[in-house]
From TrEMBL:
GO molecular function terms attached to this record: phosphotransferase activity, for other substituted phosphate groups
InterPro entries: CDP-OH_P_trans, CDP-OH_PTrfase_TM_dom, CDP_ALCOHOL_P_TRANSF_CS
Pfam families membership: CDP-OH_P_transf
Family that this chain belongs to: Belongs to the CDP-alcohol phosphatidyltransferase class-I family.
UniProt keywords, alphabetically: Membrane, Transferase, Transmembrane, Transmembrane helix
Transmembrane segments: 21-46, 83-103, 109-135, 173-193
BP terms from Gene Ontology: phospholipid biosynthetic process
Stated name of the protein: CDP-alcohol phosphatidyltransferase
Amino acid sequence: MFDKRILDKSRNLQNKLAKKLLARGVGANQVTVVGFVIGMLALPLLAINQPISALFCILLNRLLDGLDGTLARLTKPTDKGGFLDIVLDFLFYSSIPLGFAFMNVEENALAAAVLIYAFVGTGCSFLAFAVIAAKRKMDSTDYPNKSFYYLGGLTEASETIFVFALMCIFPLWFTSLAYTFAVLCIITTVLRIRAGMELF
């Protein structure tokens, strides 16, 4: 919901950082992989009850995720890079509720499972729409620089990271936050299914 606005406001900063990395010979795929590894460190950190350290890894992952796309656009975007980026993003997102499940199995496991299930809904509806949109040669006017058709919703990257941040700062709220965000993810999934049925 807020992704486009945040991307627009952060574009200048990302361009400056990306140009510095490019001057040092750093490629987009390298940044994607490093960002993923850093993001995945949040899982064991959550498991050992270090949510603030995990939050640092989550935020650094998101910074690098923005930089890899900017780097790709400054050079030459590739299908391989777009594929790698989206696959690693989904693996990263689902690892955070899993980390909270390990943190406190009795209190958090069921809520984490529900949230991961809701993520499956947003992810598969997002990717299925992108596949058919590509087949029909449709372009996204809101996100023209993406490697594929980027269908928005209530729960995009910005909202997800905001909720992850709240979970890390207030870990005792995890269950309530997870169930609430799962509902929003389900609404997003329903809206995407409706959009697909109307447009296709």
